[in-house]
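Reviewers of the previous submission asked for a worked example of the structure-prediction workflow described in the proposal, so we include one complete record here. The input consisted solely of the amino acid sequence. No template or homolog information was supplied to the procedure at any stage.
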Amino acid sequence: MVKKISPLEVDNILMDFLPIDQALCFGYKDKMLGEDIAVAIKLKENKSCTEDDIKSYANEKLAKFKIPKKNIYC
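From that input alone, the workflow returned the following structure tokens.
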């Protein structure tokens, strides 16, 4: 069964996380799955968070398969 992920849905959920100013999800090639999801993050000025913080927040709001596997900070 193919599971479809709407990047816009993931973007909107992550944008509700207080430290995040901007989020942009995108697919990347994965040897096992064919494709997986990553996110580029821009934090708000004077805010900080870790990859674990983002994954924990996303875990509360999204299905497990929709949680980005890689985070890129800008």
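Residues 3 and 65 are 8 Å apart (CA to CA). We consider this example representative of the routine output the project will generate in years two and three.
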